[in-house]
Hints:
The structure holds two protein chains of two kinds. Chain A is mainly α. Chain A is built from 14 helices and two strands. The longest helix of chain A is centred in the N-terminal third of the chain and has 33 residues, at about 45-75. By secondary structure, chain B is α/β, with parallel strands linked by helices. The interface between A and B is medium-sized, with 29 and 31 residues.
Amino acid sequence: MSLPRLGILGGAVAASLLLGLSAGAVPLPFSEVWAGLLHADAEAAAIVRDLRAPRVILAFLVGGSLGVCGAALQAMIRNPLAEPYLLGLSSGAGLGAVIAIATNAGGAWAVPVAAFIGALSAVALVYRLSLVSGRRLDPHVLLLSGVVVGAFAGALMSAIMVLSDAPGVRNAFLWLLGGFGAVSWRALAVFAAYASLPLALLLFHARSLDLMALGDEPAHHLGVEVDRLRRLVYLSTALLTAASVATCGIIGFVGLVVPHAVRTVFRPLHRSLLPLVFLVGGCFLVLADVVSRTAVRPLELPVGVITALIGVPLFAVLLRRTLA
Amino acid sequence: MILEARDITVRYYRNVPPALDHVSCQVTSAELVAVVGPNGSGKTTLVRALLGLVHLEHGSVLVDGRPVRAWPRRALAQTVGVVGQQEESVFRLTVAETVMLGRYARLGALAAPGPADRAAVGAALQRCDIVALAERSVDSLSGGEWKRVRIARALAQEPRALVLDEPTASLDVRHEMELLELVRQLADSGLAALVITHHLNLAARFADRIILLDRGQVVAEGKPGEVLEESTVSRVFEWPVAVTTWADGSPQVVPLRVGEKSR
């Protein structure tokens, strides 16, 4: 990749983080943000350090992770429309999390585990549903199954939220729409703990993803242990999605928008694609969060609403293109 | 022997006739073997069996003397290169990037391609006469060019055997001839080549040996002149044919029209 492009990207990351720290219910000029970061006794230090920094960093990490999930799933099922939300992983994770909260099995560290089980169940179900004639996997049917399983999980979530009287469940409605309103350093630590291993695994297998995008048999012939890799990708994306959903709710379409944007600008080989998607995805979600905080101030829109408003039109365009 | 099937039987579904029924075949270095037969005779299943992709009900497949299923995929990819019937690319790689994917089995997970890899890719591009296409996007290629790119990718694996499943399907005369001349050259330079094809006459001209499959069984095997006999070919393909001899001595099959008699 060329140096100027890398420079632009680095600048974009820094700028979006800074913007994320400065925007909000109380807008801070960059100078105060800077002072707050450097000096613990500065006027804005409490807002910048305790409220905005974990929020912005989490948004960045979640955006990057969801983007990487989308890119990996797209290579895996050979369909540029794949991403965790549309494949039903997010809703499966949401259902797992809601069940954990409703049964008071919660706790910040246990909810991601329940979400992981939910996401894995969803992906297994989606996969089963889309095996045409026993063995062959149709990428379009897979996506359709994902949407159906997602809708089903969504219905179950709504039922649980209406019926349960567990204390955490009432807030679940807002949380499920996706948002970084209640983010703390602890939430950030939980996310980072669960997300680092699957992220590392996906980055490590980036080259294999190039081959998977050719199809199962060509990948076999070129030296990929296809079944093992498939399990690894589904497990990793399920865990990443679960960690995201458990800490900040269901945020759709990041995995669709970001890999698409990166592929049109840079080369599509995954060894460079995945790190770039992580950085761009991070910026994207930080900026989406800025919009969600500032568009209807003093109210906050759920960030999932913002990403959907951007993602759905792009989905429509991509759908027309893949079917053409 | 680089590729060897010993008495293999493959059955996709219970209660149906097997796709391959006690089939044996061998391919060794510097040899071009063609597998021919009617649609559904088991040609592609034979390829998949030789690469360990289907369950064997009976018999064994050996690659370089070792059971194919015992090979790690990476090691197998360093020994056998395969060009399948069809492949579509989802993302727009360039030709050079696509051919570099052939180096996967020889590269570490994170290492960047080194001089040896670039040299292998360069040689493969040259061999397949697609150097000029190197920076083109693969979705801008014609069918013939795309086939060549995939053969180049298989050559970049630096394999000892090359398996081609209907490499000339949908190619015009020039591209089909160019491709088979290339495969012949590769065999002459030491590669073991197994080619699945519908073209009896091209198989007769290019192959050292022909294996004729029918309903999952080997009906005839040997030099083109021994396999492509009027009675055998007519029976297997269920259509009357005449067999003549071309100037180089290879048999040429001419399907007869209705009512036409063989000379």
